[in-house]
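Task card 7
Instruction: Convert sequence to structure tokens.
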Amino acid sequence: MQGEAMDDFYAARKAELQGELADLYRAAQRAGARGPRDLGPWLEPLTNLLRQLQAIEGKPSPHERMEPDR
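Output:
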């Protein structure tokens, strides 16, 4: 893929991931999760989706941000 086609692909994938993230978060809320401590079984899937979104956006993951500069 080149240029515009690649941009379209990543824009579509980003929208798809955002939808999945919203669906998963709503499911957690319906199950009674009120905050991060209540996310238990949803934490790993949420984290994976966030990492994929960050990779598309070119943002470092929280783990990468925590590493000291050398």
